[in-house]
């Protein structure tokens, strides 16, 4: 059986669908039967009586389905990413805790339990990789520019800390620079309020990025400031436009190379 | 106004001492391009296909061609292709929902665009929608873009159909010289297709080339 957007074809006979939007969404065929052994257009002309009518209905259905999908995806995807990041953090925590306990047990007594624990930890590590991959997929779809400027995991953390892609898009670069370093930021603020000397943090979540991590301490602040500015722009393009801007990531790379050489 | 015809519905016109490329169109502006009575400015910095014509490769797209377009984004290039294939049809595939919202406005205005929100690396998902086409145009910045092109042309391209691929060096391999990436891409493509023409898109698009192939 072959599936087309207007119905199913079996033994050369077509069973016309009673819901074109539904059959359009399900018009999948296994790779090994492709290309289809018949012409979709010729068959469609029989069903819809004319080529003009065929394209008219196809276009209408395609637009309707696309609209549905767009609305659905835009609403859901960034919340999905936020929850995934939270789950990922919990998982990393759990893995570390379990590893610690496993070592504690081993020190006292070699038992079957430790073997089982180790297996479970291994499984959890596999799950961790899977979740990271899913986050990468989602982020590539909803925030291509953020993914290019930083990497998908850091991008996801920024979205998570901000609450949503929309809120990240409205944050100033100075705030983005210290996302994830709130504790030391407010500690510094409270010292300042008391009239004491204090240093505000240079970087939060974005410190994880190799372009910052690998620089000497004296240059990290510069890089973090620059990167935060570009992240702010990237988040805004992603939120309002959604198209990839190639110069943005390129400028971050250039700035990094400048700082490394100096 | 001096007008020079490059291909069907594609012209070079002179405006204020400068030559610009336009498509003949009865529609309004889609992405901020200028309109000169009946012609739409085709901005080569925005659309790689316009850059191909300006680089001197005058691809002969016929007015009744059926086209499969992979990587439609917000529809900048598609809008001009829709001007060109006025009697044909464009199946436009895009994976990302955000730019597609803008693209949908275009599909509602034009009568010859079928929008499909799917991943071009899974062509089986739209195998029951897209018919055999004369031309596949691909502009997707993905590592496995050559594989994606091969798979799609195997399923949807007519026997003597043609294809145009825009290749960005950095999205395939950012660690080696662009030239090396391009050589490899062309070698890879010439295993399955006849490479009719290839060339750089500088100065309009940095580190990009186009490859025009025939089955």
User: Taking strands numbered 1, 2, ... along the chain, how are they ordered across the largest sheet of chain A?
Assistant: 1-2-3
CATH fold title of the largest domain in chain A: Serum Albumin, Chain A, Domain 1
Gyration radius of chain A, rounded: 26 Å
Helix content of chain A: over 70%
Largest interface: A-B, 39 and 38 residues
Give the amount of beta strand of chain B, in percent: 25-35%
Number of helices of chain B: 6
Write up this protein:
The complex is a heterodimer of chains A (262) and B (215). By secondary structure, chain A is mainly alpha-helical. Chain A has three domains: 2-49; 72-142, Helix hairpin bin (Helix Hairpins, Orthogonal Bundle), CATH 1.10.287.660; 143-262, Serum Albumin, Chain A, Domain 1, CATH 1.10.246.90. Chain A is built from twelve helices and three strands; from the N terminus they run E-E-E-H-H-H-H-H-H-H-H-H-H-H-H. A three-stranded antiparallel β-sheet of chain A has the order 1-2-3. In chain A, strand 1 and strand 2 (7-10) form a beta hairpin. With 215 residues, chain B is of the alpha/beta class. A seven-stranded mixed β-sheet of chain B has the order 8-7-6-9-10-12-11, sandwiched between helices. In chain B, strands 1-2-3-5-4 form a five-stranded antiparallel β-sheet. In chain B, helix 2 (76-84) links the parallel strand 6 and strand 7. Chain B starts with a strand and ends with a strand. The mean pLDDT of chain B is 93. Chain A binds chain B through residues 2-5, 24, 26-31, 34-36, 39-41, 55, 58-59, 62-63, 65-67, 69-70, 73-74, 77, 141-142, 144, 238, 241-244, 246, and chain B through 73-74, 89, 95-102, 104, 107-108, 111-117, 123-132, 141, 154-156, 168, 170, 206.
Gist?
The complex is a heterodimer of chains A (about 260) and B (about 220). Chain A has helices at about 20-25, 40-50, 50-110, 110-140, 145-150, 150-160, 165-170, 175-180, 180-195, 210-215, 215-240, 245-260; strands spanning about 1-5, 5-10, 15. Helices cover about 70% and strands about 5% of the residues of chain A.
